[in-house]
């Protein structure tokens, strides 16, 4: 499946994303879990991007080899956070629903969420 790009300028974009997931054979429970993880990644991108060069974030999603890959990208600079007792649980939350990587760069930060599509076996390409 080709990657889908969703430029988030309005947080009410979750219903179309849920329909997209359902059309790809992702079950309702897994869709909810992924939307929760994506919502957290998007919230972090909006809240923590320092001096963004663009006023939006990009969310892309693809299903390949039985795995969902969702990327959330901001256009700001990375800033290390000071540990806090009442904040900082987003990474733990996202990790409950997939493998998470965060890659900062001078052009922005990209968070990738990987998750096996429930009910499908991961196919390894042969070559």
From TrEMBL:
InterPro entries: Anti-sigma-factor_SerPK, HATPase_C_sf, HATPase_dom. Residues 17-96 form the Histidine kinase/HSP90-like ATPase domain. Keywords: ATP-binding, Kinase, Nucleotide-binding, Serine/threonine-protein kinase, Transferase. One of its GO terms (molecular function) is ATP binding. Transmembrane segments: none annotated. Gene3D superfamilies: Histidine kinase-like ATPase, C-terminal domain. It comes from the Bacteria. PANTHER family: ANTI-SIGMA-F FACTOR RSBW, ANTI-SIGMA-F FACTOR RSBW-RELATED. This is ATP-binding protein. It comes from Blastococcus brunescens.
């Amino acid at each position: 499946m080709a990657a889908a790009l969703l430029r988030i300028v309005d947080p009410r974009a979750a219903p179309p994303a849920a329909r997209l997931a359902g059309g790809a054979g992702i079950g309702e429970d897994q869709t909810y879990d992924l939307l929760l993880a994506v919502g957290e990644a998007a919230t972090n991108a909006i809240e923590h991007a320092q001096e963004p060069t663009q006023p939006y974030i990009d969310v892309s999603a693809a299903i390949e080899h039985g795995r969902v890959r969702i990327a959330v990208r901001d256009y700001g600079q990375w800033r290390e956070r000071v540990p806090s007792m009442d904040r900082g649980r987003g990474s733990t939350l996202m990790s409950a629903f997939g493998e998470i990587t965060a890659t900062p760069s001078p052009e922005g930060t990209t968070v990738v969420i990987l998750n096996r599509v429930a009910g499908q076996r991961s196919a390894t390409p042969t070559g």
